[in-house]
Amino acid sequence: MAAGLVAAAIGFGSAQAADISGAGATFPYPIYAKWADTYKKETGIGLNYQSIGSGGGIKQIKAKTVTFGASDAPLKPEELEKAGLVQFPTVIGGVVPIINLPGIKPGDITLDGQTLADIFQGKITTWNDEAIKKLNPNVDLPATAIAVVHRSDGSGTSFVFTTYLSQVSKAWADGVGAASAVEWPVGLGAKGNEGVAAGVGQTKGAIGYVEYAYAAQNGMTFTNLINRDGQKVAPESANFAAAAANVDWANTPGYYVILTNEPGATSWPITAATFILVYKKPDDAAAVAEALKFFSWAYETGDQAAADLHYIPLPDNVVASIKETWAKEILGADGKPVFAGK
What we know:
Blueprint lengths: L19 E5 L4 H15 L3 E5 L2 H9 L5 E4 L5 H7 L1 E15 L10 E2 L1 H8 L9 H6 L11 E5 L4 H13 L1 H6 L12 E3 L1 H10 L4 E6 H6 L3 E2 L1 E3 L5 E2 L3 H7 L27 E9 L5 H17 L1 H6 L3 E2 L2 H14 L13
Parallel strand pairs: 1-2, 1-3, 5-10, 6-7, 6-8
Antiparallel strand pairs: 3-12, 4-8, 4-9, 4-12, 4-13, 10-11
Helix pairs in contact: 4-6
């Protein structure tokens, strides 16, 4: 079974007419699943969410086969306008390098951006390469060959990861670039954060990249990173929050925010928000109203669940801005907001 489809639907038995449909990013799947489980118990309304990758989510919302799409790669304001879509963030998290080296525990190894880019370009091929040894002088690094695992599907996590590599490595920027899908120089592809986590877990010497919740939930070995300020940082919630601390969400058109390689002594360098896409003038206003009601509930009551899964909830002022956007831009055929809740 394709790994990206293991979590294909957050299921509660057969779908009901009132259930909310969405598809896209695997990055936020753990928190959407947690929220959906609680929401179902409280309201009786389920969420049928296909964890198929950001590229798939964008395709499905544009094809109008789901009520909302989900993507970690935000659409630019001009893309939103052309498609007639509204975009808003839900939570913030971190993308982390994960490795499989016997005897190496989470955080034992530190990498910097250039070294990480060189590994994913196939320029560094063994774990005892001088560049890795220089960063880890007190670690007994094996001569094990490095096996790169990357996403095979159109992926917002890949967009975030390759954006970071493009910012820290000119060779990566010129040779590979940043996108949801790139021509990977080396490695094996796997579908979804789930697939990359599984691929790394099954392959000695492997390195991949996943949203931090997947690493934490599966006990994966992650690396620390050297950030833009030259400081060694671990993938921790406080460090994800530090990277997002100075963002002016309310005054950013379409909430188009990239959080990679942000300054700050404690900023995790591969931080990202994840986004929801809905139509400004939806064909099924009632369905969109149900989806917005769900996300409103999540903003109001889901912060602890998000924090428990190592996501950063959005600040109250950002949530207030998002709800103002809903009221102004997501309208029914009568020109009134489809969601009139708080």
